């Protein structure tokens, strides 16, 4: 099976998605966001678009790097780092150029043994930042823990109409449930991810109402599906005069299994192009976000030679995998908390360190 990866979605209306080498003509910011469906920007991959895609992927990775998935911690499911120094602590390039506006959470009600049993699973850490051209990027991530739905819940699709009308867009019910469900028992998800998102969008649009804005969603895996769903939602129901873009990575199908029609622009890359990566047969390597970003950094088309067009450390590939060749001497899954978060207390006991005050998770909605 060929280890290939897929990106990019573009809904109708001003919602966009894309990818990016050679600079021949200066392109405008709207063009980079897909105003012309990235015509002439993908083959070869336009340099500024390549950088924008990589930056979008880095925002996704930041949510992974900050996510507390330690089930021994009472803060599991939240960000390890607070807003004030979030980007500095995940070591994002040019961290001081960005600020976190809000953390958003989603919950999935999971059927375990009987309908009344459920597990809240926080799957979305959304950060809203401000970048160079007054763009508000919102990174979304996949869950660190796989959750399951019952057959009745997971395989259906949903619309805003009860009729089985093929002309009405449909969304896989599992994605919609994650996006729209709430949990009154959780202090973080008393409101659905959708409600949190729309509230935050309205706040930011009002805050920067005197500036020319664009909104960019980015996500990987499940986060990619939620990015597409969120982008369509705000364009259809909230935003009519601001360009909305979704740069997505390794995105599952969002619509129904039968009759699915892609509404986006897709760039296919091949992980076999890079001599730095192992000839892996593990699908999780092909789906690894940093593996994808490594390929984007050097992608020169299916027939072109792989060559890094931007400076990017190969070591990033092994942040949460062992996809990089052993000759690089980079350990696998190297992004971990020191001592897995354990410290010695005043009694000499090893305990999980409590978060610093600025990093304490606080419900916002």
UniProtKB/TrEMBL annotation:
**Documented EC number(s):** 3.1.1.-
Biological process terms from the Gene Ontology for this record are:
lipid catabolic process
**Keyword Acetylation belongs to the record:** no
Q: Give the Fungal lipase-type domain ranges.
A: 164-255
Show the taxonomic lineage: Eukaryota, Viridiplantae, Streptophyta, Embryophyta, Tracheophyta
Say which domain of life the source belongs to: Eukaryota
What is the recorded name of this protein? Phospholipase A1
* Entry keyword annotation includes Transcription: no
Catalytic class of the enzyme: hydrolase
Against InterPro entries, the record matches this protein to: AB_hydrolase_fold, Fungal_lipase-type, PLA
Its keywords, alphabetically, are: Hydrolase, Lipid degradation, Lipid metabolism
Instruction: Extract the ranges annotated as region (Disordered).
Output: 144-167
Q: What are the GO MF terms of this UniProt record?
A: phospholipase A1 activity
Q: Say which family it is in.
A: Belongs to the AB hydrolase superfamily. Lipase family.
Pfam short name (any one): Lipase_3
Cited function? Acylhydrolase that catalyzes the hydrolysis of phospholipids at the sn-1 position.
